[in-house]
Design brief:
By secondary structure, this protein is an alpha/beta fold. It folds into three domains: 161 residues, N6 adenine-specific DNA methyltransferase, N-terminal domain (Ferritin), CATH 1.20.1260; 277 residues, 3-Layer(aba) Sandwich (Rossmann fold); 30 residues. The protein is built from 18 helices and eleven strands. Strands 3-2-1-4-5-7-6-8-11 form a nine-stranded mixed β-sheet, with helices on both faces. Strand 2, helix 12 and strand 3 form a beta-alpha-beta unit. Helix 1 runs antiparallel to helix 7 and helix 2 packs parallel to helix 12. It is elongated, with a radius of gyration of 25 Å. About 2% of the residues have low confidence.
Length: 490
C-alpha cells in the first residue's frame, strides 16, 4: 500500500479500477450504491489510523490518549476497522453490513444513514469473491489526508460521480446535473463568503459544491453554510459523503420529500430562509400531494396550486418561500413551465410578484437521456430592475465533444455577459415589462419575445471558409502523426 502523495491521475485510475470490477456483475446504474460506501469507509479508517499515529507521537507513546474520542474526527469501534473487514474470508457482505451500521451508530450526529440501505449480505448480487476483490483493490492505496488531501479526495469523488453518470445512463439524472450548467448558475448567483446555500433536491451535492468552487476562486469557502435535502436514501447518503470528503464537516444533508416534508425549519416551525438557492428539481413529477398544497402548513402556496400531473411550480414556490431578504435563486426547469396550459395563473402571479428577474432558454441535449430543451429561472428578492424581466435565448450556446453536449467556457461567458449587461440585443435578449407579458396571456415563451436572426450570406460564407481551414489543418496534423509513427517503426 502506497503512502506517498497521489496525483489526481493516479487517484482517478485507482478509483475507476475498483469500480470496473463490478462490470458484468451488477447494473452500471448501481455502481454508486456499492463503490461510494466502500470508498468512504476506507477513507475514514485511514484517517483514523493517521490521527492515531500522530497522537501517539504527540503523547510520546500513550495509547489511551491516541484512542480517546477527542483525538479523532470519526469514531471507529473495535472490531469494525477496514483491516478487520479485510481479514474476513467468509460471509464478507454480512460482516461489512454490520461494520457500517456500527460506524453510523458510533457517529450518530453526522453519519447516521450515510451508508444507505444496500443489501451487502445478498450473495446473489455480490459473492464473497467479488467483495474480496473490491476490498483488496481499495486496500492498495492509503487514503489518509497526507496521501490524499481533502481537495484531492473531493475532486476524485466528483470524478466518480461523473463517470457513474456517463456509464449508467438511465439513472444519471437522479443524482447528477450537467456541471457546466451549474457553473453558469453559480456564476450568475455569485455566492459570497459567509452566506447560506441550499439545494432542496440536492442529488449527490454537486450544485452545492459548484457554489463552493465559485467562492473558492476569490475567498474562503469554509465560511459557507451548506444545506441540502434529498428524497432518495442512497443519493442522500452519497451527498453527505461528498461534502464530508470535500472537508465540509458541518454541512447538513437531510433525507425526505421536500414538497411533503420540508426538513429545514426555524425555531418557530416556519421554513428556514437561505441566501442562495440552486436547484434542479425532478421534471414534471406526477405523483405528489396536490390536494394538500391548497392548505400548505408552511405557507408555500403563494402563487397557486399547480396542475396535478406537474409539480414544477410547487418546487418554484417552495424556493420562493425559502429565500432570505437578500436571497436569490437559480432553478433549472423544463422549458414547458414558460408556456404550458394549466399554469397561466401561476405564471401571472409569478410575474406580478416581481421576484422573477431573468429567464434563460438553454439548448437541447444538455441532460442524460433527454433531448428536450430546458430553461433557468433566476429569482431575486432584491431585483435591481423592478417590474422588468430579462429574457435570453441561449439555445445556440452549446458545444459537443464525444457525443456529449455541454456549455463551453465561451458559451458560459457569452450567456453571463448577456445576463450582466441586462439590455436588449436583437435576436439574443429582450426586456419585458408586466404589461407586455400580460398582452401575451402571461406566456414566457422566449420565441414570443425574441426572433432568431437568420445568418446572412456573408456570415455563411465565413463559416464555410473557417470550416475548410479547420479541416485542412486537421488533415495535415493526422498526416504528420502517421509519418511520425512510420518513422518510429522504421
Amino acid at each position: 500500500m502506497t503512502d506517498s502523495k497521489l496525483t489526481i491521475q493516479e487517484l482517478e485510475t485507482y478509483l475507476w479500477k475498483a469500480a470496473i470490477n463490478l462490470r458484468n456483475k451488477i447494473d452500471a446504474g448501481d455502481y454508486k450504491v456499492y463503490i461510494f460506501p466502500l470508498l468512504f469507509y476506507k477513507r475514514i479508517c485511514d484517517i483514523y489510523d493517521e490521527e492515531y499515529k500522530n497522537a501517539l507521537t504527540e503523547s510520546k507513546g500513550k495509547k489511551d490518549y491516541a484512542t480517546s474520542q477527542f483525538v479523532h474526527n470519526f469514531q471507529i469501534p473495535d472490531g469494525v476497522h477496514w483491516n478487520d473487514l479485510r481479514n474476513t474470508s467468509k460471509n464478507i457482505g454480512d460482516k461489512l453490513q454490520k461494520n457500517l451500521r456500527s460506524i453510523e451508530k458510533a457517529n450518530k450526529k453526522r453519519l447516521i444513514g450515510i451508508f444507505g440501505d444496500t443489501e451487502w449480505a445478498n450473495k446473489d448480487v455480490l459473492s464473497d469473491e467479488t467483495l474480496k476483490n473490491l476490498i483488496e483493490d481499495f486496500s492498495s492505496i492509503n487514503l489518509s489526508t497526507k496521501t490524499v488531501p481533502d481537495d484531492l479526495m473531493g475532486t476524485g469523488y466528483e470524478y466518480l460521480v461523473k463517470q457513474f453518470a456517463d456509464d449508467s445512463g438511465h439513472t444519471a439524472a437522479e443524482f447528477y446535473t450537467n456541471r457546466t450548467v451549474v457553473t453558469l448558475m453559480s456564476k450568475i448567483l455569485a455566492p459570497e463568503e459567509g452566506e447560506s446555500i441550499y439545494d432542496p433536491t440536492c442529488g449527490s451535492g454537486g450544485m452545492l459544491l459548484e457554489a463552493v468552487n465559485f467562492v473558492k476562486r476569490k475567498g474562503n469557502p469554509m465560511t459557507l453554510k451548506l444545506f441540502g435535502q434529498e428524497k432518495n436514501t442512497t443519493t442522500s447518503g452519497i451527498a453527505k459523503m461528498n461534502l464530508l470528503l470535500h472537508g465540509f464537516q458541518d454541512a447538513e444533508i437531510k433525507r425526505g420529500d421536500t414538497l411533503s416534508e420540508p426538513l429545514f425549519l426555524d425555531e418557530t416551525g416556519s421554513l428556514r430562509k437561505f441566501d442562495v438557492i440552486l436547484a434542479n428539481p425532478p421534471y414534471s413529477i406526477s405523483k405528489w400531494n396536490q390536494k394538500a398544497w391548497g392548505q400548505d402548513p408552511f405557507g408555500r402556496n403563494i402563487l397557486g396550486t399547480p396542475p396535478k400531473g406537474k409539480a414544477d411550480y410547487a418546487f418554484i414556490q417552495h424556493i420562493l418561500a425559502s429565500l432570505s431578504e437578500k436571497g436569490r435563486a437559480a432553478i433549472l426547469l423544463p422549458h414547458g413551465v414558460l408556456f404550458r396550459d394549466g399554469e397561466n395563473e401561476l405564471r401571472e402571479n409569478l410575474v406580478k410578484s416581481d421576484k422573477l428577474e431573468c429567464v434563460i432558454g438553454l439548448g437541447s441535449d444538455l441532460f442524460y437521456n433527454s433531448s428536450m430543451p430546458s430553461c433557468i429561472m433566476i429569482l431575486n428578492n432584491n431585483k435591481k430592475w423592478k417590474k422588468k424581466i430579462l429574457l435570453i435565448d441561449a439555445s445556440d450556446q452549446t458545444s459537443k465533444l464525444d457525443n456529449m453536449t455541454f456549455l463551453s467556457d465561451s458559451n458560459i461567458d457569452s450567456i453571463f455577459k448577456n445576463w450582466s449587461e441586462f439590455r436588449v440585443k436583437k435576436g439574443i435578449s429582450f426586456i419585458a415589462d408586466e404589461n407586455m407579458i400580460k398582452q401575451k396571456q402571461y406566456s414566457l415563451n422566449i420565441k414570443l419575445y425574441i426572433k432568431k436572426l437568420s445568418k446572412s450570406k456573408n456570415e455563411i460564407n465565413e463559416i464555410l471558409v473557417e470550416w475548410k481551414s479547420f479541416s485542412q489543418n486537421t488533415l495535415q496534423s493526422i498526416s504528420k502523426i502517421i509519418l511520425d509513427v512510420e518513422a518510429i517503426k522504421n
